[in-house]
Amino acid sequence: MTKRDFKPKITVFYCEHSGLLSADMAIKSGFVYPESVRMIKVPCSGKIESIHIMRALEEGDGVVIYACHKEACQFLRGNLRAEARLAYIKNILKEISIEEERVQMYYLSPSNGVKFTRTLSTFYEDLKSLGPNAGRAEE
Amino acid sequence: MTKKISKTGIFIYGFEGKPGKVLGLDEACSSLGALGFVCFKCPSSFFPGEMNDFEKFLKKNKLSKVVVAGCGLRIKEPVFRDSLKKMGLNPYLITFANLNEAVVACGDKSEATKKAVALIIKAAKWVETQEPVEIQKVSLKREVLVLGGGIAGIETALTLAEGGLSVILVEEKSHLGGGAAEVGNLKNWTRDKVETLKKNERIKVILSSNLVDLRGNAGGFTVKIEGAQELTLEVGAIVVAVGYEFVLPVWKLGENSKSLIIGQKELEKRLVSDEKLSQRICFLADLVDEDLKISTRALLRQALLIKEKFSSDVICFCKDLKVSFNGGELLYKRAREAGILFFKYAEKPEIKFLNNAVEILLINEDYPHEELVFESDLLVVGEKMMPGKSFEGLAKLLSVDLDLNGFFQEDNVKILPTKSSRKGIFFVGGCRLPQNIDETLSEARGTAGEILSFLSKGEIELDLTSAKINSDRCILCLTCVRTCPHGAIIIDQEEGTAKVVPIACQSCGICASECPVMAIELPLYTNAQIIGQLSDVVGEAG
Ligand SMILES: Cc1cc2nc3c(=O)[nH]c(=O)nc-3n(C[C@H](O)[C@H](O)[C@H](O)COP(=O)(O)OP(=O)(O)OC[C@H]3O[C@@H](n4cnc5c(N)ncnc54)[C@H](O)[C@@H]3O)c2cc1C
Ligand code: SF4
Ligand code: SF4
Q1: pLDDT digits over A62-71, tens only?
Q2: Quick one: B182 and B296 in the same domain?
Q3: Interchain pair A46, B513: CB under 8 A
Q4: What residues in A contact B510, CB-CB < 8 Å?
Q5: Is residue B528 in a domain?
Q6: What CATH number has the domain bearing residue A97?
Q7: 20 to 30 A from A51, CA-CA: which of A93, B328, B506, B522?
């Protein structure tokens, strides 16, 4: 596969109170974001477990988490827990020599279709230049 | 491809606009039909009678589980759940497939349709593993504890009593009224409120006492009061209305200059007691807190009063006058017309204490003179509004958070600002945010309304979507107790396990992802369900 036609596969975990609504907004506004993206909704970014992220990396090239803004988490501290977990995962990735950039977290307000589209598209391009995930299980 | 799933219906919304052109929904229906699903395509999400169609569809096909597919369905979720409830079905055996991802794959219609089908199949998998959610009746205490007998506490208590609930109002001091009782123009009004409160049979006032212990959860808190009286009570909700404290900014003063500078609160006392005031008076505002409208209001009112009563020379120094409160512009206009002078400062003015006067040195590039020097007999400064000394202890007792400034922190400003992170506990008035009386009153009434609708029936039906702890797995590490932002987890010593209190749980799932032995599951988002969503190859249709 050449770099040009490599389509990174991305798993998005989005919190129902920010990311999901922003994604809806993006569609309503007619924005186009990369298609090889799979969305999984969670009640709060704090619900995303390490195992979910690792599993998603086994089967894809990158993972994005969308959470509410720092001081505006629907459940007060869920996004902070998610942030801590992400740091932990990045450490593991480093140890097993997988680029830590493959996992990203963005903070969103509930209707920011623009930021949703922009961050996702940028992430997609970044993954494209990183190339396929070496840790991905063979299909 | 995927194994046949019986008894799961698919209800697809047609689309207007772009999505309608991108997705071949009829093709989607027929390929889902070929897999054994029963499909129904609703013309559009704005189609009148769609819910009738939905109910007919379920009845006709004797379906018990259903996937609703479309875009932006979140706001409709409760409508569908209600509809299922009405039909006697479990309102949680339904999933919503978000076809957004299919819509963005708009390069090619058949690709997009394939993707939509794949998304719907995934949602069907989700709902297939969904257990019905039980419904539990919980009885609620119809008494409310109000902490603090300031205007916020009084108004909340009166509104609650009016709505038929019993109130126990606990005040730390030996008298009611709080801050407003000391403010000249509010004094009489506050006294009247206190009298009305005392006469109300549904309200019991306990003075010179404090809350010392709290157990239980919304609908059934057990509280212990100590002080002048000692008693233990059961209440359904708690309102915290403990006000705030005033602190004068610190100045390095000699003994003789102490009488030259006072706070607004002290000035208020002198004004109320009709003491004669000096001839030249300066106000220095916005020194400690630029965002508070309450000191601006008091400043304008006090300045006018002094001008009218003693025809003193009054000068006000401020960074910005906040006149966005009710009647603010008018008050400012009156002050200007009465001859009160206003000067804006950017840098804090220099203050010098002379023998019997204060010298104020103002430097502001906007003024033609480089320096302006004023002399005054009395300098009035706005106090800093500080959280009360008892806040920290009280917050711990209630298991709620204080914000960065040390005030009680609302759960979510976007919803009801007086709601705390714990169900059944509310913060009203100055303890949440120093504010003017009119704002406090509307907060108090709004909060009372919220409590009335929660407790009035004395019972609620709870959908048990709360987290569940597997007691066989729990090793009592207390991680969940510490991480739950809503104080919803208790320890059951007898059974040796942590337990979730359903009425307090807000189903965020934070505990579930923190538990080291994976003993906690969120019924609507089980691990198996989330991982199940991952098992397909990402991005490929089906
Ligand atoms: C000088 C000055 C001028 C003002 N001028 C105006 C004005 O012109 N217009 C206007 O709208 N507003 C004005 N205000 C503001 C107004 O007084 C306050 O907004 C209002 O009084 C706040 O009411 P509250 O009930 O929230 O707090 P408070 O009035 O402070 O009441 C809190 C009560 O709780 C009690 N308490 C504290 N801790 C505990 C505890 N742990 N347990 C039990 N009880 C406890 C306290 O003793 C107190 O009685 C002024 C304030 C001052 C100081
Ligand atoms: S985190 Fe898990 S193991 Fe620890 S107390 Fe809670 S349920 Fe038990
Ligand atoms: S789901 Fe959230 S609110 Fe419920 S017990 Fe767990 S952490 Fe607390």
Answers
A1: 999 999 887 7
A2: no
A3: yes
A4: 44, 46-47, 75, 77-78, 81
A5: no
A6: 3.40.50.960
A7: B506
